Amino acid sequence: MTMFKYAITRTPCRAMIDGLSDADLGMPDYEKALAQHKDYINALKECGLEVTVLDACEEYPDSCFVEDVALMTPHCAILTNPGAPSRRGEVEYIEKAVRSFYENVEKIASPGQIEAGDIMMVGDHYYIGLSERTNQEGAEEMISILEKYGMSGSVVTMSEVLHLKTGLGYLEDNNLLACGEFLTKPEFQKFNIIEIDQSESYAANSVWINGTVLIPKGHPGAVDAVKKAGYKVREVDVSEFQKLDGGLSCLSLRF
Ligand code: CIR
Predict the structure, then answer these.
(1) Which of 21, 59, 186, 243 is the most exposed place for a label (fewest CB within 10 A)?
(2) How far apart are CA 141 and CA 128, in angstroms?
(3) Mean pLDDT score of the chain, rounded to an integer?
């Protein structure tokens, strides 16, 4: 089973209030977001991770969502090429931190576009969602890099949510949190699917870290289901990030 040692996060910038969003939940409160981000870091530490906290980057409103700009595997790191034009420049700001942990660093190049929120790791296999942010070329480039290092990847079609992991969360031990269109996808039927009701869809983006599952606060059905499956649960309030379509996984790189 995968065990994670490290996490990289980035302090939200004041400009986050201008981040990309389709959520229609109002504008985030910056001070509240900062406090929530601190608690998120505490939760990562409680799971045994050594956390690197990068400085806020005012130039890029969405830069706290570090998950999208790199994929960290046990064998190499891959810098992505985000499909959102306003986020492309975030990659160069994460590169130094990524290189400080990895000798092998690869890059996705245009016309390939990919955001790692669209990538779900299951052991040595990586599911890649084709979304508005991730195209076929980006997925193919990613798969050929993964194969070069002895791993594998496959594409998943999707249409309902922003990123693949907006609707899916792998909890190890063959357990998969899923919501909406992902419940019936043939490629996921081999997993023990833990269904997240549409009314709690935001909790499908929960994160397994070394035996504990981080779940966004305010989703009692998800908490019950995950506890019933045998996991320890740590709730984290990330309401201000939800306003920007960002979930728990998006706020860190874990490896
Ligand atoms: C965006 O639209 O790119 C950000 N506002 C939210 C990114 C969320 N990231 C993720 O789901 N992996």
Answers:
(1) 186
(2) 11
(3) 97
